[in-house]
Amino acid sequence: IRSCESNPKAMRVLVLAAVCVTLGSLTSGPDGEIHLPTGGDVWVLVIKNSKPSDSGIYVCEVNSNPIVRSFHKLSVLSRALLPPENSTDANLYQEQKETYAHSHNYTDCCMSHNVSQHCLGFCNIQSILEGNTGQDPENCEVDFPAIVRCMADGRNHVPCCIQENVPDICQDVCRGEYTVITDNIKTHFSCSAYTEQTLACIVEGIELLPSPPENVEVEAQSSTVLKVSWTLPVANTESITGYAVNVTSLRSFDAHLIDPSETVTTQATVTSHSVQVSVRFTENSTILNNLSPFTMYEVTVSALNIHGSSLPSYAVRSLTLTPGKMKPTAVAEAPRLPDIKTCCVNKGISHKTCLDKVCDPSSAMAAEIPDLMICAPWASETFTCLTNGLDHTPCCKARGLPDLCQQMCTGNVTSIDFKFFKCLRYMGEYTNCLLQGYGVLPSAPTKVHITNIDTDYAIIHWSLPKTLGDTVRSYNVNYRLMATYDNDYKSVSKVHPPYILEDLESNSDYEVYVDAVNVHGIGEPSSRVIFRTQSKLIEEKIIEAASYNVTACCVDADLSDVCLPLCSYDASMSDIKSLAGVCSGEFHKLLRCGAGGRNHGSCCARRGVPPTCLSLCSGVIVDSPLVTATSCVPFIGNIVQCFEEGTGLLPGPISELHAIAVTNNSVTLKWEPPADGTSNVTNYIVHYQRVDNTSIHETLLKLDNQMNVTDTTATITNLETGQTYNIFVVSKNMHGTSLPSSIIMINIAKSDLGQGVAAVTSHPHSLAVSSHSATWVTITWQPPEFSLPSEQITYKLYHKSTADEKFQIVETSVTSHMIENLNPNTQYIVYVTAVSKKGQSLPSETLIAWTDPAYPAFVEPPTVHPINLVMEGSSMTILCIAMGTPMPTISLYISGRLVRQETTRHMVTVVHNVTRDMDQISCYADNGYGTPMQASRKITISHVPHIQASGITMAALGDAVKLECRVDAHPEPKMMFWRDHSGRVPVIQGGKYDISMKPAKDEEDKYIMQLTITKISDMDEGDYFCHAENAFGSATQAVSVRIRNIAATHNVTQCCIEQNVTSTCMDACTFYLDIDAVIDKTECINDFDKLMKCAADGSDHRSCCAQWGVPRRCLDWCRGEPILNNKLCVLSYTKQIMSCFHEGRDRLPGPPQNIRVEVLNTHSVKILWDPPVKNPHTVEMYRVFWRQEGARVALKNDTMDNKLIISELKDGTTYECVIKAGNHLGTSTLTDPVKFTIGDKFITSAASMENDGSHAGVAVAVVLALLVVTAIVIGAVWFVRAKKMLGVKNSGGVAFENPSYLREVNMDHIQVPAGQSETAVSNGTANGIAVSATSGGQGWKQESLHVPAATEVNPTLYEELKLGQDGAGFKRLKP
Length: 1375
Description:
Layout: E1 11-15, E2 20-24, E3 56-62, E4 68-74, H1 90-95, H2 107-112, H3 125-130, H4 144-152, H5 158-163, H6 195-208, E5 214-220, E6 226-231, E7 242-252, E8 274-280, E9 285-288, E10 295-305, E11 308-309, E12 316-319, H7 340-346, H8 352-358, H9 369-375, H10 379-387, H11 393-398, H12 406-410, H13 427-438, E13 446-451, E14 458-463, E15 474-481, E16 490-495, E17 499-501, E18 509-517, E19 522-525, E20 529-532, H14 536-545, H15 550-556, H16 573-583, H17 587-595, H18 601-606, H19 625-632, H20 636-649, E21 655-662, E22 667-672, E23 683-691, E24 705-709, E25 713-716, E26 724-733, E27 736-737, E28 744-747, E29 757-758, E30 765-772, E31 777-782, E32 794-801, E33 808-812, E34 816-819, E35 827-836, E36 839-840, E37 847-850, E38 855-859, E39 863-865, E40 870-871, E41 876-885, E42 889-894, E43 897-903, E44 906-911, E45 920-926, E46 933-938, E47 941-949, E48 952-955, E49 961-970, E50 974-980, E51 985-986, E52 993-999, E53 1006-1013, E54 1022-1030, E55 1033-1043, H21 1052-1058, H22 1088-1096, E56 1099-1100, H23 1102-1107, H24 1127-1144, ...
Parallel strand pairs: 40-47, 48-55, 61-66
Antiparallel strand pairs: 1-2, 1-3, 3-4, 5-6, 6-9, 7-8, 7-10, 10-11, 10-12, 13-14, 14-17, 15-16, 15-18, 18-19, 18-20, 21-22, 21-29, 22-25, 23-24, 23-26, 26-27, 26-28, 30-31, 31-34, 32-33, 32-35, 35-36, 35-37, 38-41, 39-41, 41-44, 42-43, 42-45, 45-46, 47-49, 49-53, 50-51, 50-54, 52-53, 54-55, ...
């Protein structure tokens, strides 16, 4: 603070920034001293019209010696409660040596401690208070330790923080420390409520308190004396009134361990104790006496003034000497150096730099490159004088000088060039070798050895060097970690034995040596000593074994394995968050084991835990876990720190409490001491109190009467006879007490207790109904307050309705239970007891619980979001709301499919990827009472148009064609036909085009587009495009028209001529058979078989005819075969059959052509054929049949090629073969049979075989045929008459002819490998073809339509008679 005027001895009142407010002076006497009036003066500062800007700290100061000041803080509030205006000129701050307190700026300190640039906003108190640090505190968490250290600025603000009621856990900032928030639970404590008070203390302390002393040194003088020295603090030096030197003993060691011959490495740890020594402010050193020999001490120094103190200086550790040893106080004079300068002068060296730097061994290490360049002409003379006629090479090699530089050690240097410049870095070692050679340096220290090796330190001992040991002033200790060999040595200078080597890594190897230092330099190094530090893991296990094991407690308490990671004082917050839901039911076990049966209430109160959470510090949960977690999680770190701290300080709980004797006025108790054995129990407190029916359920930590005892037995006297007492015992020491572990309730009346009455846990408490319905109630409670932490506790829950007489009992191990199968609207009585291995506790308080009345389920119509626009492919949210008691089960159905089911009142379901068929949504609710209810809603799902087109339509020139597309879209699309998709050429209504757009019948959101083209021509052939478009998109689909290619190979007229159609019926034989021209001519009925043969054109259309409803008796026309009694077929089914002919003429193949047989050997032949003339491109497969002539069973095989090899035939046997072509739509008719004989070199066709037959045979066949026909007619007439007489009803229908082909597998189910050329068939495949022996080759022509077996029935007797032997066993279609 600057003086306001030249007179330094003036009394004045100043503001903090040295702005003079008022000034007064007193005259000084002849001696120059200020003479105050008797009784003193009272100076009053009056500030008129005060403003918020007048706020600040005012200092009343008397410039006496020492200076006396008083401080006065003024806060002027704005009427509008606005912050004070800052009207001070900023330039004034730069002119002042000190800043305003509220502008405490420590940015320079932060930068020197490498605080991140973006976090420097926290390096100004004003910025923190105004909230304009420019950064989220979480982003600067790593830098806060350095920021807080700079903020405190070495001052001890803790007294002020205590005065402001800042709890001790939050006082780390007041000491300049900061606990970084990590995942560890102990770092998560709440101090935000005390931030303002803490910053206010720091602001005030920066101006009032001194900084810590500097340069603290500790030197061991003897086995009981340490000397401590320091220098003045940097800040507020003039206000210092004294110093406090704090000395703390850390360890003491056995003195015999300094003897290297001893191998014992035990060490004793004494109880740490501290001593504080006060030193006057005029002193800067002190002597600490009466210390323990060979003991490690930690020394700190603090500066004091009238307002408080600084923080302690950095700690210095030192070791007192062993008994009988003293630090040498006198150092002998070292030998004189040889006169090297005179030698250089005598050799003609006259340059001053060469004489002062190079020719002086003590200054040679300061030589630089220019010095060597200047002295290069005298190199030989210089190094000859320096070596003094000795070869120092062995020393130089030992000290690591390069080979080139070793020339300087011999003195044989003729010249110096740039190569020697690298030797400058070794000039110190070179000089020491010279001095060693001169005999002026001490030799190596002796007896170097290590004792008291710990995990992070070791003690090094050594003795004086044998040579010039009395000239040694200090020693250097050099050490390195031996993990890698390229580690450099770390050096500690100016030390004396014994020396503590600190900050070592555990379980690591170190190498150490010592060298002595005298006035001339550093002597020879000692021998290297290698040692290994102890393992920290082993030490931690030893410490853990001797301390309270919280994990073992949780295991004993039967905590589930998944929750064990939480059972640690170092549990992580991430584990707590992830396991909170799973482990909430076992939180009471974690809390009990964490408290360890100790009463941590005082610690928690001291550390700022609010009263609502103090019960947790005793291991007791008062409220539900959810409420407890909500209010107490911010203080979880405070509580856990108290738990961990208390395990080493507070006594554990007693166990095995028994009442072993009782009289009419006394009771004798016995118990076991705490089991952990880690706490120093000084005494026990026996609590007892008389109870009645009202107070029996009270659980108090302190009863009306207490009795202190030191033994584990006690007798309580003067009790009232016949009264009931509650009794429990806690252990106690100087730090606090344990918690009660059990409680005895005993009636005072003389009786024989036998083995004694065991204390049991207290009763459960805080019963509550957590949830309820019409048929169930969930009861929760809190575990007993008094129990051993690791005790396994189960519970018995008693419940009954008010109408019942007996309680129902349920046993459980958790603190909640759902009582089910209850009656609605009924009152129930509930209480709980705790059961441990010592017995059952008293009942808890009684709870009266009502079940809800039962109401049938009621469900609201489903709500769908978005309300008006659900698009295909998007998501929709469906809300089903149901009422009713008990809670109903809601089921969500979408388009009749169950999507989700849950017992709740509000069920929200998000459906992704909505499709068009999800338009019907239903919510169904049922709770078992009344009638279930369903509410539905139909929604409209908007979607882009989807088009189904008719594909390719075949038509003949001049026909009318109808192209059709079905469109599915919402909203209704715009539809049109395009001729060219890329050019968007429309098809316009009119002329030969008729366009129809209409909604589909009985189907929503579906439309039919039809384009009718009349009198089609070549110009109309090609692709057309159905196009539909709405607000959500468009779709285009192609439909095509193709002109049917008329096979030039088939001429209907020629076929009619070949079939001998009568001339009057030739009108039907146009290019395509016109059956309408002759259907009304009765004379043409007999020619219909011939016309149908020409119209079938060699293809088998029976599959199509069957689909069109053509009866079985007419189906042979569909393959061009004649039928009996065709009049009914002509009248009823001619048009259907002709439609199939038109439909299949371009889709079905004709029969294969030109069948040939090549005999390969006596057992194999190759069958070859040509593709059909009709539609050869539609052939997908050929089926080949063969059999022995006259046989009833035929073999077959399929092939995609036009040849097939048949093997395993019999030599000399005649075979016949037929072939048909087919695809997935149907087949052709069979070819004419080809006969061949194995062993012959020729093939005989069917025609040639018939021509070669005798006329006699033909005649016989004709006669036989007539006889058969006659027999059939007679039999039929007889059967009809018999049927009428017997009254048998005809089942109707006409049987097919050939049963073998009914059982034939359809060709479109047969697959032949692609690329197969010639297929060798072994014996073929028997398919049961039955052919009459008299039918010859005509048996092949009776292949029937493939009909599923399920639609066939056996033929009637009439049908068998009518069909004769060839038709026997045939099946017919079901009517």
